[in-house]
Amino acid sequence: MESVTKSIDVDVPVRTAYNQWTQFEDFPQFMEGVESVRQLDDTHTHWKTNVGGVEREFDAEITEQHPDERVAWRSTSGPDQAGVVTFHRLSDVQTRVTVQMDWDPQGITEKVGAALNFDDRRVQSDLERFKEFIESRGMETGAWRGDVS
């Protein structure tokens, strides 16, 4: 099992950062390799990805979600993965977003990528694109404020 933890400070209020992160269908706008995410219901999503030429489709379940604090998930099909994104208020207008992910690399390409820390760099790059996306907009594209325990 591989693991990565990365953080970035974004210049928006915690509510704005959190609300945007709950808009899973917008992930392809800032996550490299994510072709589409379809929200099936409040706690289930379907993903299509293409990472390093490896195309995958899988389902994920939101296992915990608390407004302005955290969103946790795990895959329910495809490669074994799980993670959590936390939101930390730094000031009225700044938030630290931290992603912690665990996954089981499949095949030689993913194992080599993990060994060379490509996954660490990808998560950091995705966070940098999220920062640019949300700061350039100044507001979220939508919000889901439900609580999943």
Mean pLDDT over the residues:
93
Strand content: 35-45%
Q: Give the H and E element order.
A: EHEEEEEEHH
Pick out the low-confidence regions. none
Gyration radius (Cα, Å) is 15 Å
Question: What descriptors fit this protein?
Answer:
149 residues, alpha+beta, Alpha-D-Glucose-1,6-Bisphosphate, Chain A, domain 4, 7-stranded antiparallel β-sheet, 7 strands, 44% strand
In words, what does this structure look like?
With 149 residues, the chain is an alpha+beta fold. The protein has a domain at 2-21 and 63-137: START domain (Alpha-D-Glucose-1,6-Bisphosphate, Chain A, domain 4, 2-Layer Sandwich), CATH 3.30.530.20. It is 25% helix and 44% strand. The protein has three helices and seven strands; from the N terminus they run E-H-E-E-E-E-E-E-H-H. It has helices at residues 14-21, 107-115, 118-137, and strands at 2-10, 34-41, 44-51, 54-66, 70-75, 81-91, 94-103. Strands 1-7-6-5-4-3-2 form a seven-stranded antiparallel sheet, with helices on one face. Strand 3 (44-51) and strand 4 form a beta hairpin. The longest helix is centred in the C-terminal third of the chain and has 20 residues, at 118-137. It is globular and about 45 Å long.
